[in-house]
UniProtKB/TrEMBL annotation:
It holds the Pfam family Peptidase_S41. SUPFAM superfamilies: ClpP/crotonase. The keyword GTP-binding does not apply. This is Tail specific protease domain-containing protein. Residues 395-580 form the Tail specific protease domain. The keyword Transmembrane helix does not apply.
Length: 689
């Protein structure tokens, strides 16, 4: 496709510049709100919005985004389930195709307004696997307040919203000079004394009771199915990445779009009866990964157009592969067993959550020290102080099921847990706070090595799954079964999958035939047959004995444990009897210990690659020319879907996704332990183990 967006926008801007220069009223630099904030690291949300809002809707771009999403959603297994989710998730009811049709026929005053509508339509699926983003706008800036909040429980057991006790410490370290902006914005009696706000009780937010604001955020934030978890995400929390311990400001104090200008707060300053009123502005900080710009046209050209990773590629369009168009190439002999052994793929099930990517460091005094042997990247091991617990207690902090090396994470988990045993641990806390998932087989592995070889872990330690069998997916599989993926590079290759009885599907099997027809919320849908294990035998030998008694395993988090983290936690809780704990949830709201179970998640480039690459052996019909095939995105867009859904444990005929995962315990956070991992683990161990 030929695309001349740059010239279109330049014309738009020349028009504005021309109009202002002839009238001689407006300085031409002000006519371009993107030029006005070029080179600025910190801007007001309003300034950022003016730049974002200055691009008119381009009908071709609008049609492109709607078409990509509408066609790509055929690969999202949950579309019809999400028309109306069952209790306890009945607040999820989105007809996403209907919403896209509405957006398509509606006029918007700017491309940014259109963008917001599109993002919100997908957020209403409340599914962190199925999202739409455009890096032209989303997370280009992060919009901050210097006062992350926490939901704390007092001595009488009553919960109140507070400014996090560590707020000033974190903000002064992270924001440096910019803090002065907020210091100066405080009312006279507090000016320059931002520190006094740390720990303050929040009596009202924008004139309403704090939980009215928490709820409003929970209604629109998307990502996690449980309402309680979405409330928890309003507050600050911690996490562990490969690089180190991180602090998350939460949805109140860090937002990925510059939509809110300020917040009016009524506060009770700590240990005093003084009531303070503060009107604090939000400030937007430019992401370090953004390409600099000088004016609107370079802003657009550098940040808003598709990059070389936005779309998929034809993996077979390599110089060394001769494609004689129109003719079916000789099919090489492929020994399915050999290919299976050679090409083990590490499929992922994980959230894409821009709000988690800020990498703000947890202050040293809150960070667990001296991790034990086996600790590596996202997996960190500790022993709790013997004086704290009756029985020696080991801790595994697992911040993610993803890592730069699958093998290292796999061996780290085994080495670390074995080492905890050597250190004498008799019970185990697994902290999966803010763990958004990752490798499916690492989830199975961790379950298997903790629980040992049993009926619930061998031959499969996870859930059986199904993928959606849309007409285009069926065509892709038909092509691959006919030889279109000789190197077994594609997801739909039967050589990746096993039947429900855990025997391999042969490479020439058209495995989506016949599709399994199912009526979901009154709509006819089609799925694959049930798929079995994909991880065993593991690439590393698991121990012959359980490493821990699962009844002495406690899994704790803020509820935001998703995807592969859900696969692990659900197996441990429902099959092995592990205890699940949500830390810091609202006491009268049911807490789920995980959500967004999925089965496998993929992004748009994966879908696009399946379509583009599976055409090799066929002159017609080429998948990419099929009327159901999405075109390439022309914008800097990201989109993902749930490609497979795991079947449930309690109800094995329905997806686990919308089955109940009630936490055994909703553990209160007090001012002395909030966001301090060791203090939380010790309190949990003392109380529950
Ligand atoms: C941005 O910075 C560059 C180099 O630092 C400078 O040449 C340019 O004029 C600046 N642009 C604006 C709009 O301030
Ligand atoms: C989405 O796709 C469906 C099925 O192909 C089609 O009927 C519908 O018109 C499309 N909607 C939009 C908004 O393009
Ligand atoms: C927030 O939502 C919960 C759950 O729906 C509800 O029980 C509570 O009353 C709401 N609180 C406020 C202040 O609206
Ligand atoms: C925008 O900036 C680029 C490079 O700095 C320049 O070449 C172009 O003429 C500018 N466009 C407008 C409309 O000012
Ligand atoms: C994609 O673009 C980036 C940045 O321009 C470049 O570093 C990278 O090599 C490119 N990758 C491919 C596969 O072309
Ligand atoms: C940790 O591992 C190192 C190297 O393998 C070993 O020398 C050391 O003794 C181990 N420490 C403990 C406490 O097990
Ligand atoms: C263990 O507890 C003792 C006594 O309370 C304390 O001095 C020590 O620092 C603690 N050790 C760790 C590793 O927390």
């Amino acid at each position: 496709m030929k695309w001349h967006l740059g010239s279109f926008l330049c014309l738009g801007y020349l028009g504005v510049a021309w109009a202002s220069s002839t009238s001689n009223v407006v300085d031409s630099s002000y006519a371009d709100p993107c030029a006005a904030i070029a080179n600025e690291t910190w801007v007001s949300p309003q300034e950022a919005r003016k730049c974002f809002g200055s691009f008119p809707v381009d009908p071709d771009i609008k049609a492109n985004i709607i078409e990509v999403l509408n066609k790509s959603l055929a690969f999202h297994a949950s579309v019809n389930y999400q028309r109306q989710a069952p209790p306890p998730f009945e607040d999820i009811h989105e007809d996403v195709h209907g919403d896209l049709a509405r957006i398509s026929s509606q006029d918007y005053s700017s491309d940014f307004d259109l963008h917001l509508e599109t993002v919100h339509a997908l957020k209403r699926l409340v599914d962190g696997h199925c999202f739409y983003m455009n890096l032209c706008y989303d997370s280009l800036y992060t919009t901050y307040l210097p006062i992350p909040l926490a939901l704390l429980t007092d001595e009488l057991g009553v919960q109140h919203v507070h400014v996090a006790p560590e707020a000033f410490k974190i903000s002064s370290t992270e924001f440096g000079e910019e803090l002065k902006f907020w210091q100066d914005a405080l009312p006279e009696e507090l000016r320059g004394k931002l520190e006094l706000l740390s720990g303050a009780e929040v009596l009202s937010i924008d004139g309403e009771t704090p939980f009215a604001t928490v709820n409003a955020s929970a209604v629109q934030t998307g990502r996690m199915q449980a309402f309680g978890t979405r409330q928890n995400m309003f507050f600050s929390s911690y996490g562990r990445t490969e690089a180190g311990w991180v602090y998350h400001f939460g949805d109140f104090a860090a937002q990925s779009l510059p939509l809110k200008d300020s917040v009016a707060l009524t506060l009770r300053i700590q240990s005093g009866s003084d009531i303070a009123f503060a009107n604090l502005p939000y400030r937007s900080r430019l992401s370090s990964s953004v390409e600099p710009w000088t004016n609107a046209s370079t802003f657009w050209a550098n940040n808003c157009l598709a990059t070389n990773s936005t779309n998929g590629v034809n993996l077979y369009a390599k110089p060394n592969v001769v494609v004689d168009s129109g003719e079916r190439p000789q099919q090489p002999f492929i020994d399915p067993a050999l290919v299976r052994a050679r090409l083990r793929k590490h499929h992922k099930n994980e959230l894409f959550d821009a709000s988690m990517a800020q990498n703000i460091e947890l202050p040293a005094e809150m960070t667990p020290s001296s991790p034990l042997n086996g600790s590596s990247g996202v997996a960190q091991f500790y022993m709790l102080n013997a004086s704290v617990t009756d029985a020696p207690t080991g801790v595994l902090m697992l911040g993610s099921f993803s890592a730069s090396s699958f093998n290292e994470l796999q061996s780290s988990l085994l080495d670390g847990l074995k080492n905890l045993k050597t250190e004498g641990a008799e019970q185990l806390i697994v902290d999966v706070t803010n763990n958004g998932g990752g490798y499916i087989c690492i989830a199975h592995w961790l379950h298997r090595i903790i629980a040992g070889p049993r009926g619930t872990t061998v031959p499969q330690a996870g859930l059986q799954t199904q993928t959606r069998a849309s007409p285009l997916a069926q065509l892709i599989v038909k092509h691959i079964a006919g030889g279109a993926d000789p190197e077994n590079l594609l997801l739909y290759n039967p050589l990746n999958w096993e039947y429900a009885n855990n025997t391999p599907i042969p490479g020439e099997e058209d495995w989506l035939q016949p599709p399994v027809r199912k009526t979901v919320n009154g709509v006819e849908d089609m799925f694959s047959q049930r798929l079995g294990d994909e991880c065993q035998p593991f690439e590393m030998d698991p121990p012959a004995e359980p490493l821990f008694d699962s009844n002495k395993v406690v899994i704790i988090s803020n509820g935001r444990c998703a995807s592969s983290c859900s696969l692990f936690s659900i197996s441990m809780a429902k099959r092995e009897g592990a205890t699940t704990v949500v830390v810091g949830g609202k006491d009268d709201v049911p807490q789920q210990y995980c959500g967004v179970v999925g089965g496998q998640s993929i992004r748009f480039p994966n879908i696009d690659t399946e379509i583009k690459a599976s055409e090799l052996a066929f002159s017609a019909p080429l998948c990419r020319d099929h009327t159901l095939a999405p075109p390439d995105f022309i914008t800097n867009s990201l989109h993902g879907v749930t490609w497979r859904l795991g079947f449930g444990i309690d109800d094995p005929l329905e997806p686990e996704e919308w089955q109940d995962h009630p936490a055994d315990v909703n553990f209160p956070l007090t001012a002395d332990i909030v966001n301090k991992p060791v203090a939380i683990w010790e309190r949990v161990a003392k109380t529950l183990l």
